[in-house]
Design a protein that fits this description.
The chain is mainly beta. The protein has two helices and 34 strands.
Length: 511
């Protein structure tokens, strides 16, 4: 963007995260550096992506530049900023606007992928160091359903189904080398994808598949590295009433895997119903421990409920306990990467559930004399996932639960399970940041699970008033620094203005 379309105001604030009686508040500060980019009607801000210590990339679409776009393509501008929020470089790239488009970063580089239902794709690799773009186009094949795409270690991984059989397709972002990896299953009608995620620290992608075999269901973990399948593990449920409903892997520095997720009390295919959380450690293909935790055994898990509902749940739990039975509630959660800390494991998860609404529609019905009249009917339709709270759990080296804590959150619904929390751990505290309806929230927990601090961090300066917002997002950047951005409408001495706000939030000790 040229100077005609971009104006910046820089605000620097040092916020002391005060909390009465807390030694944490006496030692820690949050330094916030913010830039505001005036929004023009001719410019659309698409995303703001961190590229680690290389800085960040702001992706925009400018109306005037679309004259130079190819057919079925957009002319996009990628603007690199350094970690001090100074603009370094702009680059324009033609990119496909057809199909499902996803953009992400890994290893300090940016990846943008467009996938169509016909099995075609366009893949952009943007080197975060020199901003040199590389474009790849290809076709995986007909009868292809592309479900996931993930990037890690210079590779794009696309996971999906071809002729109803699972596959993973890899593309080297620097050389363009491609590799089709077929995933073996015993029956094309008896498997489902559970998750496909990456571990940038260990240059791996992890695919979980749930498959039905003769003796029941099994969970299979496939590990990919450098564009190839590196290893795979198969494990059966530990008991009929403790079967994984969702599963995610975190690789530890010693090469072992901590698998976290939710479990159900039945062998069901649905992944939106579970009664608790499980943690499993795999080392050299062997299970070291498996631990299962009822949601209701977590401290403050029901704190998001009304007081009346909490009391009702407690009464039901007590009545079940008198019969030596376990009371459960149906829920689900998406975990963050498990953190290993002094031989213990920290799991941070976000609890959510599906919501539905009644929708009316009109059908024509016969009157009996040859005529047709309209009639209104109703149906239940999915209305997104609602998030109620998050929780933190500490497990010891043998998988036994230590402390736990939970707190309500207010965030927007999402159509797919989506992580809202960004997490950072140092020797004294676990810091959690997440956006919530026009503000950022920071919560710090001590090594014993106690809440050290809870603070709201504003998106605007003291002399500004936030009127509207959209696309607000907060995520871990690097070290002890977080990145937050979004489209805002504010009111200040200059009147009402539309801006795109980028915030650098750094936690550190007081000087």
């Amino acid at each position: 963007l040229d100077k005609k379309h971009l104006h910046k105001k820089i605000f620097i604030a040092i916020l002391s995260l005060a909390f009465a009686g807390s030694s944490y508040a006496q030692e820690r500060t949050a330094d916030i550096k913010r830039i505001e980019i005036e929004s023009e009607s001719s410019v659309t801000h698409l995303s703001c992506n961190s590229i680690g210590e290389k800085g960040l990339v702001l992706t925009t679409k400018e109306k005037e530049k679309q004259k130079g776009a190819k057919k079925d393509h957009d002319m996009l501008t990628f603007s690199k900023y350094d970690t001090l929020l100074n603009k370094v470089q702009d680059i324009d790239v033609n990119f496909q606007d057809d199909g499902e488009v996803r953009q992400s970063t890994a290893g300090g580089n940016l990846y943008r992928v467009a996938m169509t239902r016909k099995g075609q794709y366009e893949f952009l690799f943007l080197d975060g160091e020199n901003m040199q773009p590389k474009l790849f186009n290809g076709e995986i094949g007909k009868k292809t359903n592309m479900i996931y795409n993930r990037v890690v270690g210079d590779y794009l991984y696309i996971a999906g189904e071809q002729s109803d059989l699972p596959f993973v397709y890899s593309i080297n972002a620097r050389t363009g080398e491609k590799n089709m990896i077929n995933i073996p299953v015993t029956n094309k009608r008896r498997y489902i994808f559970m998750s496909f995620e990456t571990d940038e620290d260990h240059n791996e992608a992890h695919l979980f598949i749930k498959e039905k075999e003769k003796d029941g269901y099994v969970i299979k973990l496939y590990v990919f590295s450098n564009g190839k399948m590196d290893k795979n593990y198969t494990f059966a449920p530990d008991a009929e009433d403790k079967f994984p409903a969702t599963a995610f892997a975190s690789k530890m520095d010693d090469g072992s895997y901590i698998i976290s997720g939710t479990y159900s009390d039945k062998n069901i295919k649905s992944t939106d119903r579970s009664i608790g959380i499980f943690l499993k450690k795999i080392e050299n293909g062997k299970t070291i421990f498996s631990t299962y935790t009822n949601y209701l055994d977590l401290t403050n898990f029901t704190s998001y409920m009304t007081k009346r509902r909490q009391e009702r749940v407690e009464r039901k739990k007590e009545r079940k306990a008198e019969k030596n039975e376990e009371y459960t509630i149906n829920y689900n959660m998406i975990p963050n990467k498990v953190i290993e800390d002094n031989g213990k494991y920290l799991l941070v998860g976000e609890a959510y559930y599906p919501t539905y609404i009644m929708e009316s529609y009109t059908v024509m019905v016969g009157t009996g004399n040859g005529g047709m009249v309209p009639r209104i009917q109703w149906r239940m339709v999915f209305d997104g996932f609602a998030y109620t709270h998050y929780f933190v759990i500490e497990f010891d080296s043998k998988g036994a639960m230590g402390w736990s804590n939970a707190a309500p959150i207010e965030v927007q619904k999402s159509w797919v399970p989506h992580r809202h929390l960004s997490v950072s751990k140092d020797t004294k505290s676990l810091d959690i940041i997440y956006p919530s309806f026009g503000k950022m929230n920071h919560v710090a927990y001590g090594n014993g699970g106690e809440e050290l601090n809870k603070e709201e961090i504003p998106y605007v300066g003291d002399d500004q008033k936030l009127k509207r917002y959209s696309g607000l997002d907060t995520r871990f950047w690097y070290g002890n620094t977080f990145l937050s951005s979004g489209q805002l409408k504010i009111k200040d001495d200059d009147g009402r203005r539309r801006i795109y706000s980028i915030n650098k939030i750094t936690f550190g000790k007081k000087p």
